[in-house]
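Cross-posted from the bioinformatics board.
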Amino acid sequence: MPIRTVMKANEAAAWAAKLAKPKVIAAFPITPSTLIPEKISEFVANGELDAEFIKVESEHSAISACVGASAAGVRTFTATASQGLALMHEVLFIAAGMRLPIVIAVGNRSLSAPINIWNDWQDTISERDTGWLQFYAENNQEALDLILIAFKVAEDERVLLPAMVGFDAFILTHTVEPVEIPDQEVVDEFLGEYEPKHAYLDPARPITQGTLAFPAHYMEARYTVWEANENAKKVIDEAFAEFEKKFGRKYSKIEEYRTDDAEIIFVTMGSLAGTVKEYVDHLREKGIKAGAAKLTVYRPFPTEEVRELAKKAKVLALLEKNVTFSVGGALFQDFSRALINQKEKPILVDFILGLGGRDVTFKELDEVLEISKKALAGEEFDEVNWIGLRKEIL
Amino acid sequence: MAESPFKADIERVQKEYSEKMTPGAIAYIPGSSVVNKTGSWRVFMPEFNRDKCVRCYLCYIYCPEPAIYLDEENYPVFDYDYCKGCGICANECPTDAIVMVRETK
């Protein structure tokens, strides 16, 4: 029987790692994900998890140890956040390029300076071009489930890419919620043993990994990483379907909520999706045709699903906790890219909000609604809006 | 010069690697890095004096490439296709049978 209990997302991530039975875990403590390696080392020390826990001196070493272990052919896991993930940056490309299915749990946190330990998505968004798969959890249960799914997808022979699962700092990592811990047997059945065919160490089968590629081969190598990202779209759908069958919880790349007759759809990721769904209910009571959509998978970008979603709405309000120094945030760019050649497309409005752990409440969402309504009515509106910005101190 | 013991493998690698991209660009055949000749990086080359050599094999053991083979009489043979001219062999040689000289055309 699955155990229903209460725990923080950090603990849920550690439990997911325990259920996935990785052979090597290398981690360095960083706020807000410190509890994950702490909990895992407890599991290892108690003999509940048969794995090598490597205490390293930095995140660069953590991911390097994971790359080494994964290249040797075992399931590996690590956890980090913010500057820690940024410190891993160069090795993230190597992990993806070498096609090593490492899974990272990330407590989504802002990047310095100024130093801020609270939630936004800047850390993982900054790593969106590394070739890693990216999942975003809305609650603690999803944090657990998506890590299991991430292992499943990452290790699929058609994919063979590393994956990161993000969950919002403090909002999830340090908040206790009911979580169902699935049975070990069912997880074993779902994940199976990791049996690498492409990369493992065996004296009888010498190979060279992390090779040098001249211009004649590098481009093809990069193409295969891109192709694997494309393949991952189908594999993720299959993994979601199998997960639903085995565990009863349904996931999709884009989760839609009351979108069928919606005029304005609020699109977001992570824990903010929960707030937005509540807000949509609140608007529906007032007779406003609003809907919500949540991206569970951000990389590979679910282009097809985004196009389907775009057909349903007149205005897509993109709520995002990150800044890119182009136009608006990352979601705005990806949505624009996905829709640019479509015949009929909704108006896109971008909202940057909740940076560095600032609360996003109905008050901020009211501002979002006002601007979205303007766009819907054909009035003049700003494409990019900073919501909750304290203009008086600027 | 002694022929590389990996010759057959090298030819196979050159053929297969240029025809098929593997996941993670992994080279599955040993000796694949031998394809990349590194001798052109050299500035100094080891010059070998057979009369001084006592056949202690230190040069052979210490060569990091390894670009030194042993001939039938166990004298070292330098493979200048892969010798980068690091000078470790000359440094280790107890009888100064190896000296590094600036490479000339």
